[in-house]
Each structure stands twice: as structure tokens, then as C-alpha cells.
């Protein structure tokens, strides 16, 4: 079982049960259930194998491991892997984030206090300020930073030697990283969404640690609604556990899991209230589209950014919605999922709202 305890992105503020951001409760539970080694880490087989080779080779040489860049959606295990890297290298870990480093001095203070071999985990590294980013180039490559003292013509640069350390950077938007920074990582890995079978293993492991009795069908029911994300799988497991404790004998089977997730408005494909509201507005009000994002946001009573950044990525990944130059368009799978029949004119222009309000 593996997932991140990273800070939520600015747009993920809806508190959804299937949201990928971790709140305070999530972080506390995740800390207790987090795997401690690569052997315990479920899923991401290719990444685990490659990372194991990198770490073993470094240990055999008695050297610090190469810098590591982990990319992928929230909740897939980037923070967990950073902690495992530190544990495998028997090194301490320092955790910070890109948004927290707004000045080069902030980064210099962190780097100057690192111990030899220490792992520095920098979450959302793409959101770091440009001056700090440029300082990081030299720190990663030469283990040195130049601290500027004074201003104007009298300013002087004082070189500061750093002990060898391992930087583990995590990002949900690898495309925003500048090439000079990306190229300085010795190992890069992209975290993929999990298959249902892998999520079942995550759920069984978490259930054992939480002392929850769950059968194979119950775990499969939860896994199928977890959007390919371990963090969501564990969040759903805890809510189903609550339902089973109050409404049944505490044991989770397929019937109990299904009933619990209906209460929490998570359907068989993992869509929640917001996802369905977007689809229903697109289908029932605009005939399947195309419709502009601003119009669609007003129809569901949400901010434009919430619809675009929180609901749409999963709907697009599931093949229920498509983004086109003229606006958002529902796919045949969306009509089928909501049990509606597409009008004959669907796909030939729809309401045309996208032309008026923009995509």
C-alpha cells in the first residue's frame, strides 16, 4: 500500500471522497500504514525494479545514490518512495516542497544544514522559484552553492561546499520542469495508475493493518471504484469500514461495500457527485456538447478551475468526455453510463455553446 501525503494542489479544495489530495486524517493514517521497503511496496513493478538497481549499486560502491525524479498523479506513491529510498540507503530524510522555497536563501539554508548522504525530498518541485531553481543546478551537480552577500556593486559571492546528498524531486506536472533541471537527475521514473488487481492487494494489506475483515469480492468492489489510485482505495476502505461497523457486523463483503459506497455517492466506475453533475449538465442541458468550459462550470455551480482541474482529468481518462477546440463533448460511453440515449444530432455541432464561450 502506497500513496503520498503531499500538500493538495491549489485547485483540489472540494474535499471529495475520491479526491487525490490528502487531508489531515489521511496523512495520519498513511503514516501508520506506509510501506517501509521496496519489498513491501505494491505495484509500480518497473519503477521498483529500476530503483532497486540504482540503490543497490550505490550501496555496493559506498556512495550516495543518484538524484531521483518521480512524476505522476497525486496519490500514487511518490512520497512513500522517497522515504523508502532513505530507508534503503540508511540515511535521514528532509522533507520540503517547491511552494515553500520562494527565495534562493530559503534553499541555501536547507542545503547548508544537510548531513552527508541525507535524502532531501522536494515535493512539487516544478513550483519552486526561479532563483532557487538556478541555485539547485550547482548544488545537484557540484555539491556547492554560491551565497550572495550584500547588494549592488559591493555584493560578493561566498562559495559554500555541501556534503554529498540525494535529491528526490516529485512533480505532478513533469512538463513544467525546465530541461536543465530535469537533465540533472540521474534516475527519472513516471508513476502509472494502478490496475484493479494491484489495488486489491493494497486494500487487503491495509485491511490487515487496520484489523478489518474483508473478503475478495469486497476488496474488488472497492478497488473498482478507486480511480487507479492507492490513496483513494484506502480512503474508501476506511469509509466502508465505518459503514460495516455501524450497519453490519464489521465484516466487509461485496454487498456491504456496494451499499456503503452508494451512501457516499461513489458509483461503479468511481465517479462522485461532481463528476456526475458535469456529465449530466453536458448531456441533459447541452445535448452532449460541444459546450464551453465557462458555460459548463456555471451549469454545475462550480468554479471553472474546479471543473477543469478536478473533474475533467478523470472523465477524460475514462473516455467519458473529450476536449475539443469547440468545447467539451460527451462520448457515447457517457450516454451509456448515465443510461441516456444520445440524440441523432449528437456529434454534429450540438448546442454550439463552445463557440460562444470558448473551450
UniProtKB/TrEMBL annotation:
GO (cellular component) term, any one: cytoplasm
A Pfam family reported for this protein in Swiss-Prot or TrEMBL: AAA_lid_4
List of residues binding Mg(2+): 79
InterPro entries to which the protein is assigned, alphabetical: AAA+_ATPase (IPR003593), AAA_lid_4 (IPR041445), DNA_helicase_Holl-junc_RuvB (IPR004605), P-loop_NTPase (IPR027417), RuvB-like_N (IPR008824), RuvB_wg_C (IPR008823), WH-like_DNA-bd_sf (IPR036388), WH_DNA-bd_sf (IPR036390)
Gene Ontology MF: a single term: ATP binding
Keywords, ordered alphabetically: ATP-binding, Cytoplasm, DNA damage, DNA recombination, DNA repair, DNA-binding, Helicase, Hydrolase, Nucleotide-binding
Subcellular location: Cytoplasm
Secreted listed as a keyword: no
Residues at which DNA binds: 304, 323, 328
EC number: 3.6.4.-
Entry's Gene Ontology BP terms: DNA recombination; DNA repair
Ranges where the AAA+ ATPase domain occurs: 64-195
UniProt-annotated stretches for the region Head domain (RuvB-H): 268-359
Keyword Secreted carried by entry: no
Binding positions (ATP): 33-34, 75, 78-80, 141-143, 184, 194, 231
Main location: cytoplasm
Location of the region described as Small ATPAse domain (RuvB-S) in the Swiss-Prot/TrEMBL record: 195-265
Catalytic activity: ATP + H2O = ADP + phosphate + H(+)
Record's comment describing the protein's domains: Has 3 domains, the large (RuvB-L) and small ATPase (RuvB-S) domains and the C-terminal head (RuvB-H) domain. The head domain binds DNA, while the ATPase domains jointly bind ATP, ADP or are empty depending on the state of the subunit in the translocation cycle. During a single DNA translocation step the structure of each domain remains the same, but their relative positions change.
HAMAP family to which the protein is assigned, alphabetical: DNA_HJ_migration_RuvB
Function description: The RuvA-RuvB-RuvC complex processes Holliday junction (HJ) DNA during genetic recombination and DNA repair, while the RuvA-RuvB complex plays an important role in the rescue of blocked DNA replication forks via replication fork reversal (RFR). RuvA specifically binds to HJ cruciform DNA, conferring on it an open structure. The RuvB hexamer acts as an ATP-dependent pump, pulling dsDNA into and through the RuvAB complex. RuvB forms 2 homohexamers on either side of HJ DNA bound by 1 or 2 RuvA tetramers; 4 subunits per hexamer contact DNA at a time.
Assembly, per entry: Homohexamer. Forms an RuvA(8)-RuvB(12)-Holliday junction (HJ) complex. HJ DNA is sandwiched between 2 RuvA tetramers; dsDNA enters through RuvA and exits via RuvB. An RuvB hexamer assembles on each DNA strand where it exits the tetramer. Each RuvB hexamer is contacted by two RuvA subunits (via domain III) on 2 adjacent RuvB subunits; this complex drives branch migration. In the full resolvosome a probable DNA-RuvA(4)-RuvB(12)-RuvC(2) complex forms which resolves the HJ.
Family note: Belongs to the RuvB family.
Name of the featured protein: Holliday junction branch migration complex subunit RuvB
Protein's organism: Streptomyces mesophilus
